[in-house]
Every structure is written in structure tokens, then in C-alpha cells.
């Protein structure tokens, strides 16, 4: 085997090893946000030296796992139809995204414990921007409230989604009913207050 042939094969082997480790990290941390590197090594079926050859610290591994989960989520959300009435579009977005949030809640908890707040915002930039654009459009259409800042409405939606995930894990909210509860709650939060016409500025 020539050196030129060996190098691509080593790169391919390394990429498969990284993918295997990241997949194991996602699954393990989604079950237990406090999972150790040894737990992930065992789940991935690799040695510690192999893992540390790709990820120098647990923080790097957690970030890679979260980034991978967010990329997968973006692939799903990018196909959601957000055209037309902003209220209907928001319902479709929530119905598509709440289960993704529930699945990654423990992973997000793990990341919050090791990643700076600024990095967390960077990783969540795409979904935040999608929601921002939708709320802004709803305000222009006159169907979403304008008496509260957009950033506050966005953060509140995130609190509802993550809160629902925690309630599901605690067994107080049935996952089969979560979508309905989340949509009803968020729509009530962003709706124009009765009697205001939604014309107050923020």
C-alpha cells in the first residue's frame, strides 16, 4: 500500500471514529447530563487514548455532541413551512421543535455546565433567528403582541419548551399531550392582549 493510499484511509478511519464517539456522547449525555468520559468511552466502544486523540477535554466532547444534535435539529426545522399567517406558522414550528428540545434537554444541561453562555448563544443562533423572524412578522401582521420586547418573547418560548421537557422527564406531563400544551401556552403568551390592538411599542 502506498503512502498516498494509506493517508486517505487513516482519515476515513479517524472520521468514523469521531462520528462513533460523538454519537455515543449524544446518547449518553441525553440520558445523564453528568455522564463521565469513561461512560462515553464505554458506550462508544473505544479506548480512552482514542477518544482523547480526537477530543482533548470533556468540554470539547460535550460541545461536539450538542453541535451535532443542533445540526440534526436544523435539518428537520429547515423543512417546516413558515409561510402565511404567523400564528399558524408558529404552531407548525412548535409542533416540529418541541420533541427535539425534549430529546436534547439533558444534553443542553450538560453543555450549560461546561460551556460559556456566549458559546451557548452561538450554538443556538440559527433556531433563535428563525423564531425572531417569525415573531417580527407576526407583529407586522398585527397578530402578535408588540407591548413586550421580541427578545423577551423568544426567551419565554425557550423557557416553555425546556420547562415542558423537564415536566416530561419528571412524569408530570404526558409526552403525547405535550405538543398541545406547549402550543396553547406559547400562543397565549404571544397573542395580542385583549383590548390593546397590539399597537403598543416595545
UniProtKB/TrEMBL annotation:
PANTHER family per the UniProt record, alphabetical: HTH-TYPE TRANSCRIPTIONAL REGULATOR BETI, HTH-TYPE TRANSCRIPTIONAL REGULATOR RUTR
Residues in the DNA-binding region annotation: 36-55
Organism of provenance: Phytoactinopolyspora halotolerans
Highest taxon of source: Bacteria
Keyword annotations of the record: DNA-binding, Transcription, Transcription regulation
Molecular function per GO: DNA-binding transcription factor activity; transcription cis-regulatory region binding
InterPro entries referenced in this protein's UniProt entry, alphabetically: Homeodomain-like_sf, HTH-type_TetR-like_transc_reg, HTH_TetR, Tet_transcr_reg_TetR-rel_C_sf
Protein name, per record: TetR/AcrR family transcriptional regulator
Pfam families reported in the protein's UniProt record: TetR_N
All residue ranges annotated as the HTH tetR-type domain in the record: 15-73
